[in-house]
Specification:
This protein is α/β, with parallel strands linked by helices. The protein has one domain: Rossmann fold. Helix content is about 40%, strand content about 20%. A 5-stranded parallel β-sheet has the order 2-1-3-6-7, sandwiched between helices. The longest helix is centred in the middle third of the chain and has 19 residues, at about 65-80. About 30% of the residues are buried.
Length: about 180
């Protein structure tokens, strides 16, 4: 069975283009869906304590460092367990929402989701697929002023996820509405 991780980032509970479009995407998929709703359960920002603890080898973590990394460990485990990650991403001021940026910061962990090698960085979350459903509010996806979509693709590539599909939310929503008419 396919394990799907659905990342919800829109703060709009009703009328959200990214929520509607990810719903369409998920309806066409078979599998078990785990939902990480960053709008109703916001994540903390990275702190100095977290930044220091992430560099300590797992076997050497003290209780406080392990506590500080606990949520990050949970988020990473969700990624590791997923075969496919579906991310609904509204664009805020030409970039990703702060909730999504906090998630990115917490899942990018040296020696956990990526490592540095003599050839450069190497992602450790290989063999996964990601679907980015971007709601851009009129900004064309991958245009010179779209800083969100390329940034998220770069992060996913950095941690080893290279099979990435980007879908414009307005296009899938329009196609589904047309098909229903």
């Amino acid at each position: 069975m396919t394990n799907i991780l659905h990342i919800v980032t829109s703060t709009n509970i009703t009328g959200s283009q990214s929520r509607q479009a990810t719903g369409h995407v998920l309806a066409d998929m078979d599998g078990t869906v785990t939902i990480r709703n960053l709008s109703t359960s916001p994540l903390p920002q990275v702190t100095a304590a977290w930044n220091a603890a992430r560099l300590v080898p797992a076997a050497d973590l003290n209780d406080e460092e392990a506590r500080v990394l606990g949520l990050s460990d949970t988020l990473v485990a969700e990624m590791q367990n997923a075969d496919t990650i579906v991310i609904g991403m509204p664009m805020h001021n030409f970039g990703m929402p702060t909730a999504l940026k906090a998630w990115v910061d917490l899942i990018c962990r040296p020696k956990v989701t990526f490592e540095y090698t003599s050839e450069g960085p190497h992602g450790l979350l290989n063999g996964k697929k990601a679907i980015i459903v971007a709601a851009s509010g009129g900004v064309p996806i991958d245009s010179p002023v779209d800083f969100a979509t390329p940034h998220l693709r770069q992060v996913l590539n950095f941690i080893g996820i290279t099979d990435i599909t980007t879908i414009a939310a307005k296009e899938i929503n329009a196609a589904k509405a047309e098909a229903a008419a």
